[in-house]
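Quiz preparation item.
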């Protein structure tokens, strides 16, 4: 999916969650998949909340990793505005250097110092695309009311060292009436699935068995 600094996206003023959800629906249609279990990390989770609003009939279950239903608080909006201004004024090289240093948890940076370079190498968006992503994140809707409508199983995995999405914020997903299995991974930052892939997989595998035909 185009977003988050890990893929190329078309230059556009704003990359909205609605656009991302529409892309997923288009892919499902192309692959002739009527229904699926979806997993999203960070912006991927925000897009899945929009997907649920648009096409709940296509969703059997949802995994949220380091993603929350709340919109940006004022402080986050200010940070995104600063990021947009920096990307426009000086490009994204130094900006992405900083993101690669701060988004992984301190434990991952200590135990796997190479993770910073690995993440940085994946951040290939143009300045225009990064502006579009940040603008889309800043304008995403409040999805807390949406959580109360999710009547399929939910798995929520938070990182104890996530500086962007706190475990406390992710607890709002417990309100899903379809049931929410909630976990906090000790020592994981914002890229929990990348920092601790085996532990994330160990949580997902047994949860996914409920969908076996």
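Solution:
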């Amino acid at each position: 999916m185009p977003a988050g600094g890990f893929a190329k996206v078309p230059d556009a003023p704003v990359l909205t969650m609605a656009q991302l959800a529409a892309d997923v629906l288009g892919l499902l249609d192309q692959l002739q998949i009527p229904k699926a279990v979806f997993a999203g990390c960070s912006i991927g989770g925000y897009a899945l909340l929009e997907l649920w609003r648009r096409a709940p009939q296509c969703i059997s279950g949802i995994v949220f990793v380091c993603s929350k239903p709340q919109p940006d608080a004022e402080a986050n909006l200010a940070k995104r505005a600063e990021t947009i201004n920096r990307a426009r004024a000086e490009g994204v090289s130094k900006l992405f250097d900083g993101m690669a240093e701060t988004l992984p948890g301190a434990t991952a940076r200590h135990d796997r110092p190479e993770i910073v370079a690995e993440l940085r190498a994946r951040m290939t968006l143009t300045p225009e695309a990064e502006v579009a992503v940040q603008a889309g994140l800043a304008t995403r809707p409040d999805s807390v009311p949406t959580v109360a409508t999710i009547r399929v199983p939910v798995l929520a995995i938070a990182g104890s060292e996530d500086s962007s999405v706190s475990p406390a914020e992710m607890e709002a997903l417990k309100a899903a009436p379809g049931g929410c299995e909630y976990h906090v991974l000790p020592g994981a930052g914002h890229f929990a699935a990348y920092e601790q892939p085996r532990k994330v997989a160990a949580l997902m595998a047994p949860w996914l068995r409920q969908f076996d035909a």
